[in-house]
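User: Here's a structure from my thesis project, written as structure tokens. My advisor, Dr. K., wants to see whether a designed sequence matches the one we expressed. Can you design one independently, without my sequence as a hint?
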């Protein structure tokens, strides 16, 4: 089977080729999937995409006309796929629901510690032979109240590390209660209570109509003064314009973001010599208490190995007519 693999970087090519070179003919494309690039899948039966590829109705219709039978997401989230259109066109969609929740949860804790203890700022000072500590006073995690929104695979690991490891008070919000977390003292509360009472808010729920702009002007106004916000889930969980206003008014103590609502077309590329015309992103990057990374939380050897293996196993199972463990179906 021929697979058109969109938006590939060196690390994608390395791990996918290692996992599937015997069985599949892989066409590695650097461009993302979208209306202008769908034709590049001509001659293939499968396409493989990542978080910011556009898999909307017009693209699905183009893919169907080319004879594409399966879209394999090499990620967990599938908010960029029009599942209704895929179903209508008879295109199967698979994803990688769990490749390494440890990769993302550990990165989340890393971001929080770096932000809270100003490690990233200290490192740039020390490299300049500036060993002064003024301005680097941080806060202990121990004893602070952390609100974890979404206690699925990633959020549960974050909640456990913060509760059992660092001795935080942990509040959680999720329609599904995890009893193992309750056993270690995590308290499930309504979202409004979490947003109001947490010193630190970390987001691990999927992007849905209910969670879009979960952190908006109202949530920021209701939050504790000096609240720290961490988002390694999906950018659109936060209204970035409202966040900038709250940062300017010094309502927010710090923000660590691995994702950004308008990241498509910016993240995953070296734009260091380019002019970026996204004023919201550029403004966010000017705050001394904002730490950003470019959707990197998943990027470990273990996760990339698991992503490649699961993606190609799903495509192989599809080819063999076997049941698909990781198929994505339209709800309702
Ligand atoms: P998961 O499906 O295991 O967990 C999501 C949890 O969110 C579930 O427990 C679900 O019940 C809960 N939830 C759903 N709606 C909610 C709501 N309205 N309020 C609160 N909780 C709600 O997913 P996961 O593997 O833990 O991943 C979490 C998110 O992390 C994914 O949706 C994805 O967007 C993101 N992610 C980011 C990266 C990265 O590199 N930055 C990598 C992988 C996943």
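Assistant: Designed independently from the structure alone:
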């Amino acid at each position: 089977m021929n697979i058109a693999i969109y938006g590939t970087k060196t690390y994608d090519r390395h791990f996918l080729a290692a996992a599937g070179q015997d069985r599949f003919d892989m066409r590695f494309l650097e461009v993302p999937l979208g209306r202008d690039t769908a034709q590049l899948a001509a001659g293939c039966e499968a396409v493989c995409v990542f978080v910011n590829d556009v898999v909307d109705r017009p693209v699905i219709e183009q893919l169907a006309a080319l004879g594409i039978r399966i879209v394999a997401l090499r990620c967990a989230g599938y908010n960029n796929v029009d599942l209704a259109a895929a179903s209508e066109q008879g295109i199967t969609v698979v994803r990688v629901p769990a490749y390494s929740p440890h990769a993302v949860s550990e990165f989340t804790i890393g971001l929080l510690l770096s932000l809270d203890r100003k490690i990233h700022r200290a490192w740039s000072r020390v490299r300049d032979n500036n060993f002064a500590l003024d301005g680097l006073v941080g806060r202990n995690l121990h004893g602070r109240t952390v609100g974890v929104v979404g206690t699925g695979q990633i959020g549960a690991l974050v909640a456990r590390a913060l509760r059992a490891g660092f001795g935080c008070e942990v509040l959680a919000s999720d329609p599904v209660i995890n009893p193992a977390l309750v056993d270690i003292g995590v308290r499930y509360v309504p979202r409004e209570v979490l947003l109001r009472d947490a010193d630190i808010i970390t987001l691990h729920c999927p992007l849905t109509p209910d969670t879009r702009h979960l952190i908006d002007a109202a949530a920021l106004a209701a939050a504790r003064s000096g609240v720290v916000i961490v988002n390694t889930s999906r950018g659109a969980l936060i209204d970035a314009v409202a966040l900038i206003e709250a940062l300017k008014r010094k309502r927010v103590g710090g923000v660590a973001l691995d994702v950004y609502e308008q990241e498509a077309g910016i993240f995953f590329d070296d734009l260091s010599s380019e002019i970026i015309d996204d004023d919201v992103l550029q403004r966010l990057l000017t705050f001394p208490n904002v730490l950003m990374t470019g959707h990197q939380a998943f990027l470990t050897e273990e996760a990339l190995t698991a992503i490649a293996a699961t993606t190609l196993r799903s495509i192989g199972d599809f080819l063999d007519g076997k049941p698909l463990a990781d198929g994505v179906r339209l709800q309702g």
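When you compare it with your expressed construct, this may help: Residues 76-77, 98, 101, 104, 149-155, 173-176, 204-206, 208, 210-211, 232-234, 258-259, 295, 297-298 surround nicotinamide-adenine-dinucleotide (CB under 6 Å).
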